Amino acid sequence: SRSAAPFLPETPEKRSDLDELRSAASGCRGCGLYENATQTVFGEGSPAGRVMFVGEQPGDQEDRKGHPFVGPAGRILDRALEEAGIERGDVYVTNAVKHFKFKRREGGKRRIHEPPSAGEIRACRPWLLAELRAVDPDVVVTLGATAGKALLGPSFRVTKERGRLLSLPDEETPDARVVATIHPSAVLRAEDRDAVYAGFLDDLKVVASALR
Ligand code: URA
């Protein structure tokens, strides 16, 4: 099966350097998603951040601009960070999958987001694990089901696990705590936006209190 592993830098020193990782990831062909996406969107933020946020995959605007969470979902995340009292300088933001996956309706122009497959999430996981080791955060926040499954396993359910301090299960991951929550784009899609946002903010307050 396909994997990003052969595209990672060769030495352990380079594998723990975010700039080396970012530059190597720009040429990743570890799954098929590079073929239609504009570019790899690697994680960004504070290399020494105590909190690492993990989304699903770049969206349309992230794909064009090359930076994570710069579109509508990013604006929800920014607002909630501010309101929860989590400082930007304490944050690194990335995605479970580093390329935008989309389809177009027949004859259509608009690029419609498609969820990554389990195989694509698995193929991309070496980048996420390398970022985790390089940043070595105290708390990892999974945004939505894809990130939750990528780090907590296939039986992960957001509704059941959200808003509590969990730990990373696996021997290959550093021993950070994890808080799972919804994806900020769920706020944008919700009928009762205010209530869904309030729940998201409550989960981020759990993160903020774990940092004190
Ligand atoms: N949604 C994500 O999961 N990640 C982004 O970077 C943007 C939108």
TrEMBL record:
<keyword id="KW-0004">4Fe-4S</keyword>
<feature type="region of interest" description="Disordered">
    <location>
        <begin position="1"/>
        <end position="21"/>
    </location>
</feature>
<dbReference type="GO" id="GO:0006281">
    <property type="term" value="P:DNA repair"/>
</dbReference>
<feature type="domain" description="Uracil-DNA glycosylase-like">
    <location>
        <begin position="42"/>
        <end position="205"/>
    </location>
</feature>
<feature type="compositionally biased region" description="Basic and acidic residues">
    <location>
        <begin position="11"/>
        <end position="21"/>
    </location>
</feature>
<dbReference type="InterPro" id="IPR005273">
    <property type="entry name" value="Ura-DNA_glyco_family4"/>
</dbReference>
<dbReference type="InterPro" id="IPR005122">
    <property type="entry name" value="Uracil-DNA_glycosylase-like"/>
</dbReference>
<dbReference type="Pfam" id="PF03167">
    <property type="entry name" value="UDG"/>
</dbReference>
<keyword id="KW-0234">DNA repair</keyword>
<dbReference type="GO" id="GO:0046872">
    <property type="term" value="F:metal ion binding"/>
</dbReference>
<keyword id="KW-0378">Hydrolase</keyword>
<dbReference type="GO" id="GO:0051539">
    <property type="term" value="F:4 iron, 4 sulfur cluster binding"/>
</dbReference>
<dbReference type="InterPro" id="IPR036895">
    <property type="entry name" value="Uracil-DNA_glycosylase-like_sf"/>
</dbReference>
<protein>
    <recommendedName>
        <fullName>Type-4 uracil-DNA glycosylase</fullName>
    </recommendedName>
</protein>
<keyword id="KW-0411">Iron-sulfur</keyword>
<keyword id="KW-0227">DNA damage</keyword>
<keyword id="KW-0479">Metal-binding</keyword>
<comment type="similarity">
    <text>Belongs to the uracil-DNA glycosylase (UDG) superfamily. Type 4 (UDGa) family.</text>
</comment>
<keyword id="KW-0408">Iron</keyword>
<dbReference type="GO" id="GO:0097506">
    <property type="term" value="F:deaminated base DNA N-glycosylase activity"/>
</dbReference>
<dbReference type="InterPro" id="IPR051536">
    <property type="entry name" value="UDG_Type-4/5"/>
</dbReference>
